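SAMPLE LOG
Freezer: B-3
Tube label: C17
Construct: single chain, 261 aa
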Amino acid sequence: MSAVVGVGTVLGPTLGGLLAKFGYAVAMYFGAIITLLNAIYGFFFMPESLDKNNRLKEITFVRLNPFTQLENILSMKNLKRLLVSAFLLWVPNGSLQAVFSQFTVDTFSFQPALIGLVFSIMGIQDIISQGFIMPKLLIKLNDKQIAILGMLSEIIGYSLIALSALLSFYPLFIAGMFIFGFGDSIFGPSFNGMLSKSVDSSEQGRIQGGSQSIQALARMIGPIIGGQIYVSLGHAAPFFMGVILIAAAIPVLCKRKHVDM
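STRUCTURE (predicted):
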């Protein structure tokens, strides 16, 4: 799944750049059409994966309240540490995406085409990691170990990106993006694996939805904080924040009690 997302991450900016030649709004209309077709396809052709015995008989108003659902999810001790550790990782991730373009322009004077090419590293890493590396890692490591490996990789990546800003040396930035991209690509599947194994089949939709809500919250907070410290503390500050927050997230994840993965 993540490998397919990587393909989209590589092709999306390329198609957007080509369509923008016909007007900046054209890419948006194209995206809207593709999304509509995707929704129609999903409605008519994608089968429900959850067995009928595990589906809710009725959906109450209480279950439709997102804040109530989040409160219930975070009240589960087995999940709280996992979600908190992921939140600490997603905040700097959102910050990176927000300041990425401005950072490359301010620090290295990159042009738009080069910025898009560097950003596609994330997609390329998803394809390589999910298609070739992840299957081998799953043979030797469990979900938690892979997640920690991903977090350590992101710390190294953030460190190199911060150092590239201090030295104005773009090869360090490219290397940092590759290492960060690797960590990000293996963390997601391993995190989802731990999440899905933490509850029974009847709770899968609720727990995955709660996880996505927390991720959305982190990606809202991350750009706000990242943008502010980028301006006030310097170009390297958002990446030092990433090092600090993920370093704090690792012990939170390690203390999490769970059955064998």
